[in-house]
Design brief:
There is one protein chain. The chain is an all-alpha fold. It has three domains: 136 residues, Alpha Horseshoe (Serine Threonine Protein Phosphatase 5, Tetratricopeptide repeat); 124 residues, Tetratricopeptide repeat domain (Serine Threonine Protein Phosphatase 5, Tetratricopeptide repeat), CATH 1.25.40; 66 residues, Methane Monooxygenase Hydroxylase, Chain G, domain 1 (Up-down Bundle), CATH 1.20.58. 78% of the residues lie in helices and 0% in strands. Helix 1 packs parallel to helix 3, helix 2 runs antiparallel to helix 3 and helix 12 packs antiparallel against helix 13. The longest helix is centred in the first third of the chain and has 39 residues. It binds zinc ion. Zinc ion binds next to helix 2. Pfam families: TPR_10, TPR_12. Keywords: Repeat, TPR repeat. This is Tetratricopeptide repeat protein.
Amino acid sequence: MTAKLGIACHLCLLTTGDVSPGAVAHQEAASAAFERGDALAAERILRCGIAAIFEGADGALAARAALRVDLGNILTALGQYDDAERQLRAAADDVNTHLRAARLLHGMCLNALGMLSRYTARFDDAAGYYELAQTELRSIEDEDALATILHNIAGLAHAREDARSGIEAGQESVRIRTARHGENSVLVAADLSNLGGLLFDVGRVEEAAQCVTRACEIFANSYGPDHHEVAVNLGNLAAVAAAGDDFEEAERLYARAIAIKTRVWGPDNPTTLVSIHNFARLLARMGRVDEAWQHAQDVVAALAGRVGEDHRLLRRARELVVELARTSEQRLRS
Ligand SMILES: [Zn+2]
């Protein structure tokens, strides 16, 4: 990298690992040469600095672009317009590549902050971070990263029980992922499952059923029929069936979901217990009070002492146990 100066370039010795000291040294030396009136020396020094940059190093693109802008200016002053334009265009390309990488990273930082805020129930903060992330990723047209943010925006709407506000983002994520990965991709399945939950919450049950059924098929085809993603979606399908008063279908689906979750997570896992609780509620609606009470009681027994008394599932299971005991008592009396 020192050949162009004819002698060993001491500035090049600075251009190792971290590229910026070497690049800045070349820039400063070239600037001094140009001020002395030695434009040709400035040109040689800048070309040497550009050649010394290892493209894979941190900050290489921005450093090389800065050298090329200086070189482009000198070449313009020397009347070498074609060469100047080549250098300046290459500088613009370097900066653009550098910016895209930085914007992608910035977008993913904001996304991670959004997820953190969501898990800690700071929903307004989460929405703000996702919005900024979305703007950043739309500006660089990174479709996969954008679909991830849209998926999370839809999920946030579900978590804060404002399903309507997330449907558009959920639909766009499905469209983007289908176009990029084909309709059988598990990424599409995850988006469909997400969207199905939102559609269900706003009462668009038919569309919800289509989304969740399709998600279930994709997961089963990709991961096998006993995978936990299949179980989660079977549980959602059961909720759809129950909402349509198709109790037999709902019972069949809950039984499958619970069987898979029990195998994968164990009988006392909160994920399994959520399905058992939902199944107990279904049985209660079907008038099978004693079975329902037993399942609700199982959920309480599995959680009591392990989680705080204000744990949502424990609280709801306790309420169900009390309610079912009362119903059972009334039946015995009448
Ligand atoms: Zn050099």
